Amino acid sequence: MAESSSGTKKTVGLITAISIAVANMIGTGVFTSLGYQVVDIQSAFALVMLWVVGGVVALCGALSYGELGAALPRSGGEYHLLSEIYHPSLGFLSGWISLTAGFAAPTAIAAIALGEYTHAVFPAVPVTHVGAISVVLITLVHSTSIRWGNYLQNISTAVKVGVVVLFIVLGFMASNHQPISLVPKSSDWGILVSPFFAVALVYVSYAYTGWNAAVYIVGEIQKPQKNLPKALFIATVMVTVLYALLNYVFLLLVPIPELAGKVEVGFLAAEQMLGPAAADVLSILISVLMISTISAMVFIGGRIAQVIGEDYGVFKMLGKRNEKQIPVNALIFQAIVTLLFLYTSTFEQVMVYATFLLIGMSSLTVAGVYVLRWRRPEMDRPYKTWGYPVTPAVFLLVNTFIMVYVILERPLESLVGLGIMIVGIILYMLNRKWGSFGEDTVYEE
Known about the structure:
Elements: H1 14-25, H2 28-32, H3 34-37, H4 44-71, H5 78-85, H6 88-102, H7 104-121, H8 127-144, H9 146-173, H10 188-191, H11 195-208, H12 224-253, H13 256-259, H14 265-274, H15 276-311, H16 328-344, H17 347-375, H18 390-409, H19 411-434
């Protein structure tokens, strides 16, 4: 079994663990996804149900992760859990996906969104270059000072939550609402089982990415067996309510045809709600929200890359830290991969293949609840998944539904995702031949 690092301080309480999960979930997806969803789905009921279904699936995943994290309380997320449940090779593959799709791709998505929202206010500003500059500058901050990196994260996260709440309140107070209804028509039920709904769930799943964030730092959570499941549950329910309300507000404010294919959904809603001048201010605030997302991804992704570098010889350079204990090499590597995504793929492409891979890894992890109960029934389980065996099954069935239709409807993006996985397998084989595990990490099979 992988042992926790000795001397790890339990500094994270329940409230902080909830805040970490909420901050990681609320980001790019909820302010950008609706424009792609309405291209194929025009029913307000089905569009809001996307976010409810996404929240229920994330909740099922959170309840399942709660059991795994409480039974195997070591930081590292899927990287640790898959190594323990199945084999270190799957842990390595998960770590590789974290290095690329897990953090670099979402960072690129947030950077593109930041550029789009800035471009909406200042049309002369080039979207991609603004995103790239933001990635470089934020990486520079996190590479030079832990203190200033924390200041950047805390301030931008406070703005993030404030913007979401402000949007919901002002949206319901606005007088120019669209004539939409959440009462389902007979045709709406068919939409819920259509390929369009499955593909649209990709964007929703991406928006909920981060519901498992507390698992990555479980080794630092006080009373993890008790607080981790609570944090995952409370954070996911909170965000589900906020997401459903926020997207309902977007639909209330902007005609569906005007949303189609647009990234800057929040700007369009703010323009209808407050007028062009105030919308510019709110759009800049949303850009700050994207800064928070980029900052969180850079910070956490760099630390995970560092741990992988310590454990595997093929990534040895990423495991090194400078005299300030900052993993500069890992941060630079992640920035380079992010810029590669930024300049070679569209917003939609990056979101689809990143979500495709993340769904695959989280599904393997949730399936681990069944595997561990079968292989290690004697294991101490301070918390057991509520609703077992149905809860993990719901998560797995919905995600399988999504992945099948992504492969059918988005074959190019699926092939890119599979290509990333193949590169990870090759790197693992190279590590087996020329590398080695870190001396401090020991696994039992």
